[in-house]
């Protein structure tokens, strides 16, 4: 048993120092956005009640995905400004009688990333499919959920863009 201990220790150290080189996307995105980020969500005149929802989703993504700190604009490495287009609802499924029973909500998010040296614009699209009762209108709760989930997907698309940008930098 004692003779296996040095072999086990050597194997462990060898594996520890010869990793596969994988880096999480948060590491690549931090190259682009830095450690301290401020966020700003432009209030939509058509949909002001969803601005708070979008701000919460953006802040959650900053903390969880970028693993960065939220700070005031004056202390930030990067300032991110978000605005969304008016949601579009497209019928995607009909029943046998021709009534719409499912919609796809589409949100286009416009993001401006501003640092001391760079100002760059991004567009990210998020979609969410949901069902409704035949011959019914979209309820406020369904609309609210559709905007929430499609916004979350748009934020994920933006994060993917920033991570890809960071992976190309030396």
Question: What is the CA-based Rg, rounded?
Answer: 22 Å
Order of helices and strands: HHEHEEEEEH
Average pLDDT across residues?
Answer: 83
> What fold name goes in the CATH topology slot?
Double Stranded RNA Binding Domain
Overall number of structural domains: 1
Distance between the termini: 47 Å
Enumerate the spans where pLDDT stays under 50 for 5 or more consecutive residues.
Answer: none
Largest sheet: 6 strands, mixed
* CATH architecture title: 2-Layer Sandwich
Structural class: alpha/beta
Shape, per Cα inertia axes: extended
Task: List how many beta strands DSSP finds.
Answer: 6
Helical residue percent? 25-40%
What is the gist of this entry?
The chain is an alpha/beta fold. 39% of the residues lie in helices and 29% in strands. Strand 1 (36-41), helix 3 (50-64) and strand 2 (69-70) form a beta-alpha-beta unit.
């Amino acid at each position: 048993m004692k003779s296996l201990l040095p072999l086990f220790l050597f194997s462990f150290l060898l594996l520890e120092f010869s990793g596969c080189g994988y880096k999480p996307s948060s590491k690549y995105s931090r190259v682009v956005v830095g450690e301290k980020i401020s966020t700003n969500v432009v209030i939509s005149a058509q949909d002001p009640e969803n601005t708070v929802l979008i701000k919460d989703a953006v802040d959650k993504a900053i903390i969880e995905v970028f693993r960065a700190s939220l700070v005031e604009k004056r202390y930030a490495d990067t300032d991110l400004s978000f605005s969304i287009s008016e949601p579009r609802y497209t019928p995607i499924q009909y029943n046998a009688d021709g009534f719409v029973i499912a919609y796809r909500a589409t949100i286009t998010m416009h993001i401006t990333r501003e640092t001391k040296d760079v100002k760059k614009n991004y567009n990210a699209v998020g979609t969410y499919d949901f069902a409704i009762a035949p011959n019914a209108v979209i309820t406020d709760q369904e609309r609210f959920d559709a905007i929430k989930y499609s916004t979350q997907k748009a934020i994920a698309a933006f994060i993917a863009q920033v991570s890809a940008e960071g992976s190309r930098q030396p």
